[in-house]
Every structure is written in C-alpha cells, then in structure tokens.
Amino acid sequence: MDDILSNAKAWQTDFFDPSVKKEIQNLMANDPEELKDRFYKNMEFGTGGMRGIMGVGTNRINKYTLGKSTQGLSNYLKRVCPGEDLKVVIAYDCRHNSDTLAKTVADVFSANGIKVFLFSELRTTPELSFAVRYLGCNAGIVLTASHNPPEYNGYKVYWTDGGQIVPPQDNEIIEEINRLNYEEINFNVNSNLIELIDSEVDEAFIQASVKNGSFGAKEKDNFKIVFTSLHGTSITVIPEVLKRAGYNNVTIIQEQAVPDGDFPTVKSPNPEEPEALTLAMKKAEEIGADMVVGTDPDSDRLGIAVRNLEGKMELLNGNQTMLLMTKFLLDQRAKQGFTGIEFIATTIVSTPMMNEMAKSYGVECKTSLTGFKWIAKMIKDFPEQHFIGGGEESFGYMVGDFVRDKDAVTATLLACEIASDAKANGSSFYKQLIDCYVNYGFYKEKLISITKKGMSGAEEISQMMIDFKENPVKSIGGANVVIVDDYNTSTSKNLVTGEVKQIDIPKSNVLIYTTEDGSRMAARPSGTEPKIKFYFSINTRLDSAENFKKVDKELDARIERILTELKLH
C-alpha cells in the first residue's frame, strides 16, 4: 500500500489539474480500494497496444498516461531517426473522450517539433494503418479500445510499415516511457505543426479497398446485404466501399448507424457476440437478406451471418470466415498461377484447418502469436514473398498487404464477393464452407472466456496459468495429450518420446495441449481485457456434404463433453 500511496501523492503536484488532485484526495480519504486499483501499476502495452478504463490514475487512460506515452514515443523517434523531419498520423474512434485525447496526443507530438496529421473526425483503424504509408509517416496512433465496454479507451502505436509496433521496438519505446516523470511531458502545443486531414486520405483508402476486395462477382443487384456499424466508425466508409464495388442492395441498421460511445442498443459492441447482431439478424429475416455484416467500433473486426442449409441466418465464427476468405483468395491467385513465393498467415490459437488447406494448394502457411501485429511483421520480415491474406479466430482478416492490420472494411467487401459469386453459381457461402470440411477435414472450434476484473482478478488469472503448468491436462475428451507447447519457455514437449523442441516464435504466456487424435486446447490470458481464454479445436473426417448435419452434431456433443470434463461450463 505504501507504493500505491506514493504513486498517488506524486499526482498532487502543481503539474496536475486541480480537478485531478481533488479527485485523488477524495479517493485517499474515502475509497482506498478504488485508489489501489487506479495506482497499483502503470498502464501497460498488451497485444492491442494500451487499453484500459478511463479516469484519474497511473492504471487508467487519461491525458497524463497518454501524454507520457506520447512524450516517450517522441523521444524515441528523435533518437532512432536523427535529423529526419518526423511525421505522425493520428486517428480516433467513437468512444467517449477519443477526440479530446487524440488532440492531447497531437499537442504533445507538436510540442516536440513533430509534424502531425490529425483526422478531422472519427475514422477506422484500417484507414489509420493505410494512412501511415500513404502519408510517409514515421509512426501512427489510433485512439480506440476496439470492442471493450464504454468505460474503456486505448492507444495503439503503428510504425512506418503501417503495422503495430513489435519487439524489440515496443520494449525500447516502453523503456523510454518508463524513464520519464510525468512532469517531463511537454503539453505546449505548436499549432503550426498540426494539419487536419480527411477527404484526400479517405478517397485513396476507399479506392484501395475496392481494388483489393473486388474480384468480379456477378449479379450483385440480386444480393441483399444488411449492414450494421454497431455505433462505430465503419459507417464512415463501408457503405461507400460497397456502393463503389457495385452493391446497391444494402440495408443499414439506422438505430446503430450513429456513432455513440455508449453503444446504447447492445450489451457489447462486439460482433463475436451473437447478441450484438440481433437487430441486423431480425432485419435480414424480414427482408430475406443473403448476408448480415456487423463491425466493431474501430472497424477492424467483422462478424458475418449467412443462410444455412435450412435457409436460416447463422452467425459464423472467425475461423469459418477466415477459412473461406483465404480459400477464395487462393483460388483467385491460382488463376494467375502460383510462383512458389506466396504465403498465407494465421495465429497459434486459430483453426489448424488453415495449415491443412495451405498444404493442398502447395502454399506456405506462417503461424504467429495472437494479434495482427505479428502477421504485419511477417510481411515486413519476408519482403521477397507475396502475402495473399490471413486472419485469426477473433473475427479479424487482412486482405493483401495494403493495410497492415485487421481490416473489416476490405474484408466486408471480400465476404460479399464470395457470397454473391456463390449465389450466382447456384451455391452459397455456407455450402462452400461445407465443401472445405469435406476437402480438408471437419474442424470445429469453441472459445470460452472467463472474466476476472481488477488487481485480484489479474492475480487469479496468473495463478490459473501457473496451475495449468504445474498440473498439466492429461487428456481431452478421452484422448491422451501427446504434445505440450509452452510459449512462455519456447518449448514443445512430446510426452510420448520425451523429445523437447524449441518453438521459433517470440515468448508469450500461452499453453497449448495437443492430443493423439489432433484435438487441441489452448489457454491464454487476454492482452486487452481482464479475461483468461480457452480455445478448443476438434476434428474428424467428413466423407460427403450430405453427412454434414449428422457429423456437426457429433462434434458439438464432443465439445460439450470436454467442457464438462474440464469444468468450464
């Protein structure tokens, strides 16, 4: 508690606003538990940058924590790019305070002599990634907390390639930030160095999205789309991209079309949650739509629903959409002829089916840690290779390399192209997915998330991971575990032979168990939310599309047995 008090007292100097000092004094006097949660640690960079609850304190998002991060980044840029005319671009989403926090970040950069391009209004994360390279910037910042609850905001840092910062750079920047005292933040804005941007970058991004996401699908006028932006930023661009690509039969859910940081019509603005798409699904049934698309607040992830074999709208998971999107892109590339330099990408907790499909095309599938910053790093690390597309289970996809983060804008167009093309050819998105199961094996995945909030929650999650390491899972669904991959120690141990191999991926707090029948379970604390996540993947053969429903039910029953066995219901 002494450290917490000294951290809080450090915010009592004249450098801090009177309202901030007053709030801390009130917490000291009346709410020691809240004081503890706000000051027991500094806000940290996770898989998606810095994300947390807004408010006063070192463990909160506010002008001082973001100001300190920006001051540290400014110092770092000057150190690694000596003599350069430094430039950064900043975007922000629909969240409370995003616009004012973006202005604070711009002020600090300008105070440090760095040119700032600041979007005049809210914009999507993929457009920010695109803008970094389009404007030739040294770095980019987006103010967003993605799909987190309304009380959250965040700060993601991008580098010159348009991808998020990765090791060792991220740690070097963090060290630079940690060396600073709050009083060293320079808030003295130089307005001459801040330039507002909008339509020119918008137009370039829209053109690039249409170019990268269009593949000549036919009969677009007969393809009905229901789209919802879930109160977020995608309303600024997706309707226009679909229109330019020739999709005129688009119904927008008006109740969710106005950007609003309270996200009033949903419990969570996350297209991974079926509840978030309730209004869109209802509208789709009313008008007989072919597809529903919903995007999260900063428009980097998307959820889609299509008609299943019974003609009912069914929400697909991220693994399913990623798989079919990648197959479609591989088929388009195959028409030109593969040259041996192509690759697709996925992550360690996503479906192993991506690897099976890649083998059938003779294309490399690179696998990274969770987070699109690692996929962007692959593109940078292998410039001699051609990136086709890639994604992860958490409803994100990246089409080509013109954007270096997950991109719901181009992915929405791609999904419509696949489904529209399938419909024109007497098939459907869903039927083509079943064909994949026949060709590559029927893989079924399930994600279980357990929320543990606050300081005690973080300790519980940490202990759960320790328990899994010290008392490893011996079997999953009656099949013996044969391989344990511990990404924290970079080791893969074969429990049958005793052989230990090194894992050539950066360290991360992830455990993956693989059984003799190819079932998998991964355990991983979230890098952006107070959650621990468990990922399950099971598989079997599907000899024909006609047997899909029967085998699907059998796999569902297997997953239920596993969850019961591991007490994760």
Q: What is the topology?
A:
Blueprint (H helix, E strand, L loop, with lengths): L1 H8 L8 H13 L1 H8 L5 E2 L2 E5 L9 H18 L6 E6 L5 H14 L3 E5 L5 H10 L4 E5 L8 E8 L9 H10 L15 E4 L1 H15 L11 E4 L9 H7 L5 E3 L25 H10 L3 E5 L6 E6 L5 E3 L2 H19 L5 E6 L5 H9 L2 E5 L3 H10 L4 E7 L3 E4 L8 H17 L4 H12 L1 E10 L2 H17 L4 E2 L2 E8 L4 E4 L5 E3 L8 E5 L4 E6 L5 E10 L7 H18 L4
Parallel strand pairs: 3-4, 3-5, 4-7, 8-9, 8-10, 13-14, 13-15
Antiparallel strand pairs: 1-2, 2-6, 5-6, 10-11, 11-12, 15-16, 17-24, 18-19, 19-20, 19-22, 20-21, 22-23, 23-24
Helix pairs in contact: 4-5, 4-7, 6-8, 8-9, 8-14, 11-12, 11-14
Short characterization:
This protein has 569 residues and is of the alpha/beta class.
Overall shape: it is globular
User: What does the main sheet amount to?
Assistant: 8 strands, antiparallel
Report how far apart the termini are: 36 Å
**Uncertain segments:** none
Number of beta-strand segments:
24
What portion of the residues fall into strands of 2 or more residues? 15-25%
Helix share of residues? 25-40%
Category by helix and strand content: alpha/beta
Can you count the helices?
A: 17
Radius of gyration: 24 Å
Structure report:
With 569 residues, the protein is of the alpha/beta class. 38% of the residues lie in helices and 22% in strands. Strands 17, 18, 19, 20, 21, 22, 23 and 24 form an eight-stranded antiparallel beta sheet that branches.
